[in-house]
Amino acid sequence: MALTVGYANAPLAVPLTAPAIDATSERFIHRVINRF
What we know:
mainly alpha
């Protein structure tokens, strides 16, 4: 059961994690730009 649920949620996990990665990368870029 756990494996089937994991595979079913896999397509949903990618779109949910992508914005989180973009947000963290944007924060990192802003920190680097602010230093200069």
